[in-house]
Every structure is written in structure tokens, then in C-alpha cells.
Amino acid sequence: MPQLIVALDVPDREKALGMARELRGVLDWCKVGMELFTLGGPLLVERLKEQGFHVFLDLKFYDIPHTVARAVAAAASIGVDLLTLHCQGGERMCRAALEARDAAARASSAPRLFGVTVLTSFGPGEMPGVTANPGVFAHELASAAAAWGLDGVVCSGHEVRAIKASAPALRCLCPGIRPGGTDAGDQRRTMTPAEAVRAGAEYLVVGRPILQADAPARAAAAILEEMKAAPLPPSPAGTR
Ligand code: C5P
Asked: Cα dihedral sign for 75, 80, 86, 90?
């Protein structure tokens, strides 16, 4: 069953912990992004883990290989379960991150590494220096991520089928998820929860449609119901 991850994009630590408490028992994963990690740091990750959540640290690392490897080791040391780095950081950066993760795995648990392909907020022609359609470019980056050995990629739901066709073992984590009738906001390449599950996504990231709902736990539960009701695509044995 694909996982629902709530993006805790809120402006302070107490609000984040309050929202997590409200969602405990409904879903198992929280995403800590740039805003919240800048405010709450490792202590916040620790508190979320104490509440029983898996933590996805979405800092989208993009730097020289050495710096990214050190950041991955640091994330592993605070118990992060999954983190992101940009595929555009290239092969040496991604392989250095994997080596750091594998070294951490020998000492303790270690995060899954997911490569960001093309942000779901980019529409055609908006990426500086890239003339390819965002979907085509995302597919190229995902193929590279698979060759380098990353565990998965972050992509829009629209790209999942093509990515799975060429790299079936690569997990797909999709933001830009919008239940019917909710506002897309700054997102461009959106999908409903059911559409993303049908396409084959393993992780769905949802922020504002849960955070801004009158009853966040009810909104999250409704998304989960929609996900459960959606038929999973056929998958080659051993890839789920
Ligand atoms: O509020 P919304 O559901 O649009 O939140 C989506 C979350 O997923 C945000 O935290 C955003 O940073 C993140 N994200 C994204 N697109 C990516 C990678 C991460 O929207 N490619």
C-alpha cells in the first residue's frame, strides 16, 4: 500500500508538533522541509520520532560531493528515514551520498535516498537552461538516478508510468497531489491521490490540502481512503 506523507510546512516547531499529534494514528510519515528544519533542527526530528513517525527530511541536498556526503551522514545520525538530494548534483555527488549512507548503515539505521528530478512547480519552459519538456527531463534524470543506485526519485505523478517502465525498482515519491476540488496553489504538474496511486507512486506527499483543511485528520483520512480504493498497477514481482 502506498504511503501518505504529510508535509509539515508550518512556521513554528510547536505548531508542527501539534499537527503531528493531531495526525498520529491516521498516517505514519511526516515531511520536515527547509522552513521547519531551519526552525526546529534535529530536536524536532527527535520529537517526531518519539511520537512514532517516520521522518522524511526534504532539504534537497545539492552541493559538492564531500559536503553532501557529510550532510547525509549527519541526517543518518539523527535518525532520518528518507531524504532528498538533487539528481542534477550529478553522478559523483549521488554516489558519494550513497557511500555515506552505506557507511552509516553499518553503524545504525540509515535513510533511503531519493533524487529530486524536476520540481512539480515547474511548467514547460520555466527551468533555466533546460529546453526539454519537464516530463522528458524528469525521465532522463530518473534513469540516471536508477543507474547510480538511488532508492527512488521525487517526480510528479504524470511521470511515474514512464519512469517505472524503464526503471521498475525505482520508488516514486510524488508531491503536487491535489484531492478533487482543492486549490493547486503554486503547483503545476498535479494529480489526485487516486490518479497517483493508479500510476504506481509509492509515496504521496501532501501539504496544504491537509494543513489548511478545517479538520486536518479528517482530510488526511479521506485522502487515505481515496488511495486505498484506487487499484494498484500491476507490478513485476519483487519491485514493491
Ligand atoms: O502544499 P503542497 O501539497 O503543495 O506541498 C508539497 C510539498 O512537497 C512541499 O513541502 C514541497 O516543498 C514539496 N516538494 C514539491 N515538489 C518537489 C519536491 C518537494 O512540491 N519536486
From this structure: positive
